[in-house]
Design goal:
This protein is of the alpha+beta class. It contains eight helices and 16 strands. Strands 12-11-10-9-15-14-13-16 form an eight-stranded mixed beta sheet, sandwiched between helices. It has a five-stranded antiparallel beta sheet with strand order 5-4-6-7-8. The relative contact order is 0.14.
Length: about 425
């Protein structure tokens, strides 16, 4: 019944009807609803899916979007130490976790999706500037730009055969119109890569990734397109129960330390608080996912940030902290900004895993946190003075900041329901 009520263009409405497809079924560009297709059986070889493609459309209107979301973050969260299942530190800094099948598959898909989003933005700009006028010319540009990225998973992948670029021009009732850059109609551009392959010796078909936005062409040259659907979050992944080994190990460690103040981490010391500070945001400096909500566990000489999206990230001050910056940490908050920001400069490159690793951006040399929705006074009054005292004793470079570090953003979550702030529970039995 989608879009058919009092609709003079029923065939168009049905052709562009919204849909969602799990796992390898995302290869079917026009799949019909199938009640037997579930998360549990839509993945590789009938196993659980690690991603799904969603295409949404406005009934009797011009708005369309396409997104790819994931039931895996592609691996464990970034860590600076390894922990076994008993929560005991192995004291290995070079913490390379071997990813199992589901995590490795998700990472290939996430990387492909990042590439699609990256190219999509450039195609919108190229269309608005007159560098390409139709699907054929846009596809040629997309093929060239994807090749320029030189991504690992391209070794076993025929981009030209599996690239799909679709450009539509729609009037206010959702009817098709001529896709001219200078027309006043709403534009919808969708980019898809079908049959993404794994990096196994014998490649496995993992499914498709799709990204699409509705936009308006700017009225004058040199101006950016107005992307109408950009507020719908583009990049989402969740850590599913029993999937990520690191989450279980870090949880065991935190349970052991919070059980008694006598239990201490061999380098970071004891927990300063028995519970975590909720509502803190990690600022990634990565456009694909600029902000990650989570909770912060405070140690005497370190911290652990836990997120439903990333698992856990540990920062040991004595081993990995090279400098420290802070903004808006006075007892009285600034009138124009209520959040405090802490920036931890790293001595060396911190390995990234999962959804942050599978991005196209240069990893920042700092880990930055904002108090976000947390009570800033907890950090400013109860934690920061002791940290600063230890930093000075260790001759760590300390400096006040004039604002949030360049390249980072403390934007509020795009969606009111804050995708990814809570674990996604999926029954895959």
């Amino acid at each position: 019944s989608y879009g058919l009520l009092r609709s003079p263009n029923q065939r168009v409405q049905q052709a562009l009807a919204p849909r969602a497809s799990f796992g390898i079924r995302s290869n079917l560009a026009h799949s019909q609803p199938d009640s037997s297709a579930t998360v549990a059986n839509s993945g590789v070889a009938g196993n659980a899916a690690v991603h799904f493609v969603m295409e949404a459309a406005e009934p009797n209107g011009p708005l369309h979007i396409a997104r790819t979301y994931f039931f895996s973050n592609g691996g464990a969260g970034s860590r600076v130490l390894t922990y076994d299942f008993d929560g005991i530190e192995t004291q290995q800094d070079n913490n390379m976790l071997q990813r199992g099948g589901r995590c490795a598959y998700a990472r290939c898909l996430i990387m492909a999706y990042c590439a699609v989003m990256h190219v999509h933005k450039k195609l919108v700009r190229a269309f608005c500037q007159g560098q390409a006028a139709d699907e054929s010319s846009l596809a040629k540009l997309a093929l060239s730009w994807i090749g320029d990225l030189q991504l690992d998973w391209l070794r076993n992948y025929d981009v030209a055969a599996n690239l799909e670029v679709r450009l539509m021009s729609l009037d206010l009732q959702g009817n098709m119109a001529t896709s001219q850059a200078d027309s006043r109609h709403v534009k919808y551009l969708k980019v898809a890569l079908r049959h993404i392959c794994s990096l196994d010796q014998t490649p496995v078909d993992l499914g498709s990734v799709v990204f699409g936005e509705t936009f308006l062409v700017p009225p004058g040259p040199g101006q950016e397109a107005v992307v109408v659907t950009e507020q719908i979050e583009a990049h989402c992944a969740w850590t599913v129960d029993a999937q990520e080994q690191d989450t279980e190990c870090m949880t065991s460690l935190l349970n052991r330390l919070s059980f008694s103040s006598k239990n201490r981490h061999y380098s970071m010391g004891a927990l300063v608080r028995e519970d975590a500070i909720e509502g803190v945001r990690m600022l990634t400096g990565i456009p694909e996912m600029p902000v990650v909500p989570g909770q912060l566990w405070i140690f005497q000489r370190g911290l652990i940030f836990s997120s439903a999206r990333l698992g856990s990230i540990a920062l040991d001050f004595s081993k990995h902290l090279g400098s420290f910056g802070y903004f808006n940490t006075d007892n009285q908050a600034r009138d124009d900004d209520k959040t405090a920001v802490l920036s931890f400069g790293l001595k060396s490159k911190l390995d990234r895993y999962g959804i942050l690793e599978a991005s196209l951006s240069i990893p920042p040399s700092s880990i930055v946190f904002s108090t976000g929705h947390a009570d800033r006074r907890v950090l400013v009054r109860d934690v920061l003075p002791d940290w600063l005292k230890w930093f000075k004793s260790e001759e760590v470079d300390i400096s006040p900041l004039d604002g949030i570090p360049a390249g980072f953003s403390d934007a509020e979550p795009l969606s009111e329901i804050e995708w990814g702030s809570e674990p996604l529970s999926v029954d895959i039995v």
